[in-house]
Amino acid sequence: MSTLIALPAVLDLRAADPLKAQLLAVRGQETALDASAVERLGGLCLQVLLSALATWRADGQSLTFINVSEAFASQWSAFGASASDLAMQGEPA
After folding, report:
1. Residue 26 — φ and ψ, nearest 5°?
2. Could you report the per-residue pLDDT of 20-44, keeping only the tens digit for each?
3. What's the predicted TM-score (pTM) here?
4. Three-state SS across 50-68?
5. Which of 17, 52, 51 is nearest to 33 (CA)?
6. Better-scored residue on pLDDT, 36 or 86
7. Which residue in 22, 37, 51, 80 has the most C-beta neighbors within 10 A?
8. 62 and 31 Cβ atoms separated by less than 8 Å
9. Cα 46 from Cα 79, distance rounded (Å)
10. What positions does the domain MlaB-like STAS occupy (predicted)?
11. What string of H, E and C letters represents the secondary structure of the chain?
């Protein structure tokens, strides 16, 4: 069974520590990140999410993005992060 984490609308500096804690709490479990509410993605949260992707892959677990908002996808790409990571991890809504 997969754990579901709903990402907040604003993934900024203040959201980075709570996001990191949520992810660490479910490390080792298949996890889905619901990005439907995301309106703004900051650089630090992007780093947390990229690190989580690498960690889950190294652990042999699945970390997927679901219901990816247009804002999340466009800001993810604007930072130069690979759009294929999102495409491979879950289809945009």
Report:
1. -115, 10
2. 999 999 999 999 999 999 999 999 9
3. 0.89
4. HHHHHHHHHHCCCEEEECE
5. 52
6. 36
7. 22
8. yes
9. 8
10. 5-80
11. CCEEEECCCEECHHHHHHHHHHHHHCCCCCEEEECCCCCEECHHHHHHHHHHHHHHHHHCCCEEEECECHHHHHHHHHCCCCHHHHHHHCCEC
The number of folded domains in the chain is 1
Q: What contacts 21, CB < 8 A, 6 or more positions away?
A: none
The encoded tokens of residue 68 equal 């990816």
- Dihedral of alpha carbons 34, 15, 41, 39, sign: positive
Check: CB of residue 72 under 8 Å from CB of residue 47.
no
Closest alpha carbon to 5 in 40, 41, 30: 30
Domain with 42 in it: what CATH number?
A: 3.30.750.24
Other CB atoms within a 10 A radius of the CB of residue 30 amount to 13
Give the CA distances from residue 20 to residues 13, 14, 52, 93, in Å, rounded to whole numbers and listed in that order. Answer: 11, 11, 8, 24
Structural domain of residue 14, as residue ranges?
A: 3-89
